[in-house]
Amino acid sequence: MINRIIKFKSVKKLTNLGFSELEVVVEDINPMDGKLYDKRMSVPQDLNNRDYVELKRQVDAGELTIEDAD
Amino acid sequence: MSRARTFADLATASEAGSLSKRNMIDNGNFAVNQKTSTITCAANSSVGTTLDRWEIDSSATDQLSVEISQSDDVPTELGEGFSIKYQTKTVESATVASDEIVRLIHYIEAQDCQRLGYGTSSTKTATLSFYVKSSIAGTFSFIIYADDGADIIGSTYTINSADTWERKTITFVGNNLGTIANDTGIGLYLQWNIAAGSNFTGGDNSTWKAYAANLLASGHTQSTHMTVDESTFQLAGCQFELGEVATPFEHINFSDNLAKCQRYYSKSTPYGTAPGHGQDGTTNCVSIDMASNLMRTDRFFFPTSMRAAPTVTCHAQSGVSGSGTGQWAGYISSSWTQFTFSGGNVTTEGFCGSAGSTAGSQDGYAYWTHANWEANAEL
Which end of chain B is more exposed for a tag (fewer CB within 10 A), N or C? Predict the structure, then answer.
């Protein structure tokens, strides 16, 4: 099947907060005004999470890099 | 449909083992719409949750922009619920390219597909029924994709008249090519193709086969929704059930419907209020500055166990400079301030929040904070 389209702008570890989740920024459309904005999300490193699965695929393919925590 | 026919069909469904809760599609009447707002899907993008449990995907498109909304326009004979409405808002500038496809997708969780017996000697026939209304008539396509084995089957159907509700039923034989693991992953894709380029239309998917791109929309010939501005496509009363006949649409309580959907998506704002910043006071909590600018909240619990540990998005209170996703507002040093907040320790049951930089806060102090969240564990 065709892969879902998720365009990650950045991915960063949250180990500075004591979390194993990843902070992910994606470009999204605000339904209120139709404008693009940066949506920041916390993604668990869980292979049942669809965002993590796609993120991992892009990292493994060398298309995306996970940044270290602040 | 006559009463005798209805009773006969229900008897058949009962023999197939599914008189009650026979519809395998969640939110098949499109009544649950937790996001509330009309959803915009830009060219070459997907939106995983539009109306609950329904995804829009616009793949390889260049200019196409579409809106997905909840409509109260439903077939009279259905008698209740809503429809999901697709509408083209910006068209493709050229004819439909070979690699472009636009589709509405519903995913069924794998453990809920076990009744189908796919990949076993007792694989079962199932029947799809739905109402469709389109501003453009023609031949459209539908496919079922079994994710674990990458198997696919499909069918075309004809919309005879524009802007008219029509009921369609399609029966699919059981799949004996591959099993579906009994887990929380994707079991089946149910996919209504709205428009499809030639890469996807040339094959023959009338029997179960190993996936190939030309089986994704076999026989689909009407693809002008991509090129006709304001064109529409609506679905209502979608049902997928065991057996060889389509029984009347199964009506369920809104509360049951909502609870099923919250396994895949939930939010902190009240039902009927869109998620996002600007919903002051709907999620208040106390946050503690534990040490060295490490702020923590108590744990938030989801309304039901989610399918998987969800992706968490935090939203701030409105009216505070810089309000945006991933930011919460806290009352620190006698004024409201904005700080970046993240969800952590996320499980299927809940999460807690944390911020690493909260200027002005003091170790050991508690602060009043405003925030909202969304949790997405969609398939």
Answer: N
Q: What is the ipTM of this complex?
A: 0.94
| Buried residues in B153-188 as b, exposed as e (16+ CB within 10 A) | bbbbbebeeeeebbbbebebebbebbbbbeebbbbb
B165 membership: H or E segment, kind and range: none
Distance of residue B342 Cα from the nearest chain A Cα, in angstroms: 6
- Chain A nearest-CA distance from B11, in A, is 37
Distance CA B3, CA B13 (A): 15
User: Do the Cβ atoms of A52 and B378 come closer than 8 Å?
Assistant: no
**Using CB atoms within 10 A of its CB, is residue B5 exposed (0-12), middle (13-18) or buried (19+)?**
exposed
| Residue B238 predicted with pLDDT over 60 | yes
pLDDT band at B295 (very low <50, low <70, confident <90, very high): confident
Interface mutation vs chain B, best among A48, A51, A53, A68, most B CBs within 10 Å? A48
Helix, strand, or coil (residue A67): strand
The residues, ordered by sequence, that sit 6+ positions from B75 with a Cβ below 8 Å of its Cβ are: B131, B133, B165, B167, B236, B237
Please count the CA atoms within 13 angstroms of the CA of A34 that sit on its side-chain side. Answer: 8
